[in-house]
Amino acid sequence: MPRATLLRQRLLTLFLAAMLLLFSPLVLQFEALERWRGIPALLLYLYGVWATVIGLAAWVATRGRE
Questions:
Q1: DSSP state of 64
Q2: Measured at the alpha carbon of residue 51, what is the angle toward residues 48 and 54, in degrees to the nearest 5?
Q3: Of 3, 48, 51, 56, whose CB has the highest number of CB atoms within 10 Å?
Q4: Distance (Å, rounded) from C-alpha 11 to C-alpha 42?
Q5: Which among 64, 49, 46, 52 has a CA at the least distance from the CA of 4?
Q6: What integer pLDDT is reported at residue 55 of this predicted model?
Q7: pLDDT, tens digit only, all 66 positions of the chain
Q8: Which of 8, 9, 22 is nearest to 52 (CA)?
Q9: Where are the chain's structural domains?
Q10: Checking DSSP bridges between strand 35-36 and strand 39-40, what pairing results, if any?
C-alpha cells in the first residue's frame, strides 16, 4: 500500500475518533462532575482531548515521512 494512502487512512481514523470523543454523549458525563482545583471537568476533558488529537496528528504526520 502506498505511504500516502496509509497516511490518509490514519489521519481519517484520527479525525473520526476525535469527532466521537468531542461530539458524543460521553461529553455530557463530564458536565455533571465537580470542579478540579476550580476548573470545570468538562473544560479539562475538552482541552485534554484537543491537545491529544493535535499531538497524535503531528506524530502520524512526521512518522509518515520516514
A1: T
A2: 150
A3: 56
A4: 25
A5: 64
A6: 95
A7: 576 788 889 999 999 999 998 888 877 787 777 877 888 888 888 999 999 999 999 998 888 555
A8: 22
A9: 3-63
A10: antiparallel
